[in-house]
Amino acid sequence: MKTSYFSAAALACALAFTAPALAQEHKMMKHDAMAMQPTGDQGPSSKAFTEANTKMHKDMSIKFSGDADKDFVRGMIAHHQGAIDMAKVELKYGKDEEIRKLATDIIAAQEGEIKQMKAWLAKHGG
């Protein structure tokens, strides 16, 4: 009888420690799935933004190496490419000249930074 009591106690402890972690993981997975599904308007620009955002988040899911510098650069390359892709959506569908200029500036800046980061990765064993 003591064995079953200790087994039940061990199980209760294991659940007490793992249930919150599993709930958090489920919440994160649910959030990620929700982030990938379009909400609101389903017009052409909204669909294009959804596609760019989904691709960016997928590409940012890198395998971490433990080297903060390399992991940062790898993640930021995808993040910057996402900004470029979204800016291109603005240029295709947007009408406000101030925001279109901002999108053009973002493309130029992000392309330059991606080039710099790729060169840094090549120099540091990528």
UniProtKB/TrEMBL annotation:
Keyword Disulfide bond: no
Protein name in the entry: DUF305 domain-containing protein
Pfam family for this entry, one: DUF305
Range of residues in the leader sequence: 1-23
Residues annotated as domain DUF305: 32-121
Native source organism of the sequence: Phyllobacterium myrsinacearum
Alphabetized UniProt keyword annotations: Signal
